[in-house]
Amino acid sequence: MSIRLDGDLRRDKILHAALAVFARYGFKRASMEDVAGEAGISRPALYQSYENKAAIFAALAVALGRSSCDAAEAAWPADMPFAQGLAAAGLALHGLSWQAIHTSPHGAELMATNSALVGDVVSAIDSRMQALVEARLTNLVAPSVQALQARAITAALHGLKVQATSYEDLAALITQFASLIGAGLPLATRA
C-alpha cells in the first residue's frame, strides 16, 4: 500500500506503522508506544513528529485520501469511456480505504473514529472525486446539470463503499453502478 507524504521519510515510516497498529488494535487500544515500536523509533522521536495518536490518525487519513484520489485520477484518463472510467476511478478511490478498514477486526471502530476525527478529510476526498466526475461529464450532459450529477454520482459511490460486504462485492457494486450510469448518459445528452 502506498502512502504519499510529500517526501518526509520519517513521517511516511510513522504512518505506515500507524496503519498496521490501528488495523491490529483499533484506535482506542493503540498507543503511541505501539506506533513508535512498529516504526522502529523512540517515543520521544515519535512525539517530535506527532503530538498524539489523534494527530497521527488524522495525518494517516489525509495521506490515504490523497493516495486514493491520485489513484482515481490516474485510473480515469480523459479519453476512457465514461462507464469504464467511473468503475476504475471508483474502485481506485474507495478500494484502498475499504481494504484498510474492513480487513481489520476493528473496522467498525475505525470507521467511527474516521467520522469523528476526520470528517473534513472525507469531504475533501469527495470534493476531489466530484470534480473528476464533473470534468468527465463535460460534453456528455448539459452544463447546467453537470455539477449536480457529479455530486449524485460521488454520493452514490460513497454509499456503495458502506454497503459492500467484501472487496469483491465492492468491485461488483461499483462496476454495476458505473454500467447503469453509462447506459443512461446517451439519453441525458439528448435532453
Characterize the structure shown.
The structure is a single chain. The longest helix is centred in the middle third of the chain and has 31 residues. The model has no long low-confidence stretch (mean pLDDT 86). It is elongated and about 60 Å long. It has 191 residues and is an all-alpha fold. Helix 6 runs antiparallel to helix 7. The protein is built from 8 helices and no strands.
Low-confidence stretches: none
Mean pLDDT: 86
Beta-strand fraction estimate: under 5%
| Helix-residue proportion | over 70%
Q: How many E strands?
A: 0
What are the key terms here?
single chain; 191 residues; mainly alpha; 8 helices; 82% helix; 0% strand
Element layout with pairings:
Layout: H1 9-29, H2 32-39, H3 43-49, H4 53-75, H5 82-102, H6 107-137, H7 143-163, H8 167-190
Helix pairs in contact: 1-2, 1-4, 1-6, 2-3, 4-5, 4-6, 5-6, 5-8, 6-7, 7-8
Summarize the structure.
By secondary structure, the chain is mostly helical.
